[in-house]
Amino acid sequence: MSVKINTTINGQAVSASAEASTSLLEFLRDTLEMKGSKLCCNTGECGACTVIYNGKPINSCVTMAADANGAQITTIEGLADGDKLHPVQQAFIDTGAVQCGYCTPGYIMSVKALLDRTKKPTQADIEEAVSGNICRCTGYNKIVDAIHLAAAKL
Ligand code: FES
Ligand code: FES
């Protein structure tokens, strides 16, 4: 069964149909051709697919596309301003927190949601905010450095 989805993604009204069983991640990547949110575990364990849904970071692989109806969604594609990267994106580059990059969009969305909530996150806030994100490359210290740098610049 197909469902109609009227939603707002990165400030743009989007109207499209999808099978009722489609995940939000599949809707973004396959229906809308927005490939920035990554498919990795597909079970809500790794955070690679994180998007901001009505102000909160969620795993889009375990969220139904139909739940996007009427929602405000921000994806990694919505962060840069033309050629100018968002401060969180720039901080990840500046601190060397990007290696293979597969986890990076999800981390950046979790961090953006954190810094939208508080401009001065504590270490505990940071650890909690990225507790659902897994990186296999960086050893995490550079990611934490990036979050502190981004917080200082916002
Ligand atoms: S791909 Fe969604 S949490 Fe891993
Ligand atoms: S940079 Fe490779 S998984 Fe994080």
Describe this structure in words.
With 154 residues, the protein is an alpha+beta fold. The chain folds into two domains: 2-78, Ubiquitin-like (UB roll) (Roll); 87-153, DNA polymerase, domain 1. Helix content is 32%, strand content 18%. The chain is built from five helices and five strands. A five-stranded mixed β-sheet has the order 2-1-5-3-4, sandwiched between helices. A hairpin with a 2-residue loop joins strand 1 (2-9) and strand 2. The model has no long low-confidence stretch (mean pLDDT 97). Bound molecules: FE2/S2 (inorganic) cluster (2 copies).
What can be said about this structure in brief?
The protein is of the alpha+beta class and 154 residues long.
